[in-house]
Specification:
about 0% strand, single chain
């Protein structure tokens, strides 16, 4: 292969990468901000920081039961508390792939790239279904 041949990323690759790049900064900034609000007690936690060592040795299911904490998307009801506000950034970062796929879908449709259109639609459906909590696995 010749050195004068340059490889260039496609339009959809640039779009996907930009969503992930900017989204990662937003998500991380959100996590740093909400962590700061938690440790400075601007937002009071559900579980006081002083009580955390009591829960450290427990299994997750025991901890959630004893602390009366929600499962799945139930954390959204506690988002005004410092120890749950940090989930905003985590959920945002987890959803970035869906947003990135939604961003490239019109590009793929315009290019009439049918196999990729189908794969992206199926991937979006799977990710949304998984995030919704409709399908569950394990002990939760």
């Amino acid at each position: 292969m010749s050195d004068d041949i340059k490889t260039r990323a496609s339009e959809e690759q640039f779009a996907y990468a930009n969503i992930l790049s900017y989204g990662t900064y937003i998500g991380l900034a959100t996590m740093v901000t909400t962590f700061f609000l938690y440790v400075t007690k601007v937002l009071e936690p559900v579980i006081p920081i002083e009580q955390l060592p009591h829960f450290w040795t427990m299994k997750v299911t025991d901890y959630m039961h004893e602390a009366n904490l929600p499962h799945g998307w139930g954390w959204v009801n506690y988002v005004s508390h410092g120890d749950f506000a940090n989930f905003i950034g985590i959920a945002f970062l987890a959803g970035l792939t869906i947003v990135a796929y939604l961003r490239i879908l019109p590009i793929l449709i315009r290019k009439k790239d049918t196999p990729f259109v189908i794969m992206v639609i199926v991937e979006i459906a799977i990710l949304v279904l998984a995030a919704s909590g409709i399908l569950t696995a394990g002990g939760h």
